[in-house]
Amino acid sequence: MHTYDASSFLHAWDNYPIEHFPPLWEWIGEQISEGLFTIPNVAFEEVDRKSPECGQWLKDQEIDRLSLTNEIIQQAVRIKHLLGISDDNYHPKGVGENDLFIIATAKLNGCVLVSDEAVQIRIPDMLAKCRIPAVCRMPEVNVKCVPFIDVIRQSDAVFSKQRQP
Question: Which domains does the chain possess?
Answer without folding.
Answer: 2-155 (3.40.50.1010)
